[in-house]
Amino acid sequence: MKVAYVFLTPRAATYKLGQMILPQLEAGVHGVEVVGMFFFDDNAFVLRKGDPIGERLAKIAREKNIMLMICDACALERNLARGELRWCNPDGTGRTEPGHCEPYNLVEGVQVGCFPDLYAALAGNPPDQVISL
């Protein structure tokens, strides 16, 4: 089975990912193929360059071809990206062409995006289940 994780509740990345999922992935005992991870709110901070969880995650993501994505609005708000929102105009209306937003001071391999970007990134290797934590 293939899964994608969405980290959205407080401490989901530091506790559930850092102390459960990541060690299991590193040991090869997680039990499913993880195809992607999407980070919201303060969970984004584990993706900062130099963060121990983020650095370990970047390494295992490279080895296992796991897509890592950070919410564009969350990243911009936390100074983890530079640019503008991908799919929302400054006045809150939607846009038909994506804005430019790039990672800043993040571990290697992290993409910045919103739901349309997430769907596109997972389209080539879709999960059987999406688990939100």
Largest pleated sheet: 5 strands, parallel
Unreliable stretches (pLDDT < 50, length at least 5) are none
Q: Name the CATH architecture.
A: 3-Layer(aba) Sandwich
Q: How much helix, percentage-wise, in residues?
A: 25-40%
The CATH class name reads Alpha Beta
CATH 4th-level superfamily:
DsrEFH-like
Number of domains: 1
Overall pLDDT, averaged? 97
Shape: globular
What is the rounded Rg? 14 Å
**If strands are numbered along the chain, what order do they take across the biggest sheet?**
6-3-2-1-7
Q: Termini separation (Å)?
A: 18 Å
CATH topology name, in short, is Hypothetical Protein Ychn, Chain: A
By secondary-structure content and strand pairing, the structural class works out as alpha/beta
Determine the strand fraction and express it as a percent band: 15-25%
Count all strands and give the number. Answer: 7
DSSP helical segment count: 4
SSE string, helix = H, strand = E? EHEHEHEEEHE
